[in-house]
Design a protein that fits this description.
With 366 residues, the protein is of the alpha+beta class. The protein is built from ten helices and 13 strands. The protein has a domain of 113 residues.
């Protein structure tokens, strides 16, 4: 009966196991922290914040007031409900809930028209308190939307049969609908979105001059819809919000991020995207427009050298949210990028082992 030389097979087996281990290491490292942790602003709100968020997100062009029932009434227990201090404390708690929700909507919802330029969503001046069993509570919140005099999204009352605010919404949605990517992989799609913005948007040269700047440059509208001169003008916020809308259309997980460009300490905006290897990367289409895609799918080692997430420029105001952990290196340099082809390596290793075993068997039979 033929016998196999185990000492001869051992090196081949060890080699195969080492290669398999090396292939597995990147995925193990990626599992150290959940890839989608902090991947949504809404998920970081409490139940009341989510209720307010959803109501404002769905508000249409004709809605200027909303009353939202709170799933968790804000209460002041064991306090005299008739005291002004009790009601003041409750009002502060209501305001804190709303302010956190405002931040989330402002950054995360490019189509929430309550947050387009010239819009001022606010709490109603009057907060309704209910008193029961020596408990003072706020069980619903009324929100109102004011528009500034120079708001470019005003509805013209002289055209009763046309709602200009809705026309602006429809124009953005048409631009998003018309965008197409010929790429079949996520890397190509992200590149197509970035290229589309770089090729079609002009950074507003008059952004510091309120009298000359485009009134749409802070919104996705400015980056996606032609201005009167046939061009599209935006600043970083407009680029980032347009990028998010196009990524959403293509099914690519994406976040808009506000922060600071360093060392200038100017307020800035960009995007994080989740790629097919499960990791998050940064894209700054605004800077790619002038720096040759130097900020396309980069990791934190490069990106955080001149970007600071969550802190708004000179004011130092901190956004009250967390963010997904970025990959440490650029997507195109990340070994996890190639894990989708790991089956090739497994097939080759399997073939090597089978060939080695076959050779050993043939030698043993001679």
């Amino acid at each position: 009966m033929p016998t196999m030389n185990l000492k001869s097979i051992a090196p081949v087996t060890v080699f195969a196991l080492v290669v398999l281990l090396l292939l597995a290491l990147p995925s193990v490292a990626a599992a150290d922290e959940p890839a989608d942790k902090n991947a949504s602003y809404r998920s970081q709100l409490d139940a009341n914040g989510k209720a307010l968020y959803d109501a404002v997100k769905e508000a249409d062009a004709e809605t200027f007031e909303l009353t939202v029932v709170l799933p968790m009434p804000i209460t002041a227990k064991n306090a005299d409900p008739t005291l002004e201090s009790t009601r003041s404390d409750l009002a502060d708690a209501v305001n804190m809930t709303w302010e956190r929700t405002r931040y989330a909507l402002w950054v995360a919802e490019p189509m929430a028209i309550w947050f387009w330029h010239g819009s001022d969503p606010r709490l109603d001046d009057t907060i309704t308190f209910t008193i029961s069993n020596e408990t003072c509570a706020v069980s619903q919140i009324t929100l109102k939307l004011d528009l500034t005099e120079d708001c470019p999204y005003q509805d013209d009352p002289s055209t009763a049969d046309v709602n200009e605010r809705q026309q602006k919404i429809d124009a953005v949605m048409k631009a998003v609908g018309d965008f197409e990517s010929a790429s079949t992989d996520v890397r190509g799609k992200v590149g197509d979105i970035n290229r589309y913005l770089v090729d079609n948007v002009t950074y507003d040269p008059n952004f510091k001059d309120g009298a000359k700047s485009s009134p749409y440059d802070h919104d996705a509208y400015g980056a996606l819809v032609d201005n009167d001169d046939g061009k599209r003008y935006a600043v970083c916020e407009g680029y980032a919000k347009a990028f998010q809308l196009l990524a959403d259309k293509l099914g690519i997980p994406c976040m808009t991020v506000f922060g600071t460009a360093t060392p200038s300490l100017e307020a800035h905006a960009w995007n994080y995207v989740k790629m097919d290897n499960g990791n998050w990367y940064a894209v700054d289409s605004t800077w790619n427009d002038s720096k040759g895609n130097a900020y396309l799918l980069v990791g934190y080692e490069t990106f955080f050298q001149d970007h600071q997430q969550g802190t708004l420029g000179f004011s130092g105001e901190v956004m009250p949210f967390n963010y997904p952990k970025l990959s440490d290196i650029k997507y195109d340099d990340d070994p996890r990028d190639y894990m989708q082809y790991s089956w090739v390596a497994y097939a080759v290793i399997g073939a090597i082992i089978v060939a080695a075993l076959y050779t050993m068997v043939r030698r043993g039979s001679n």
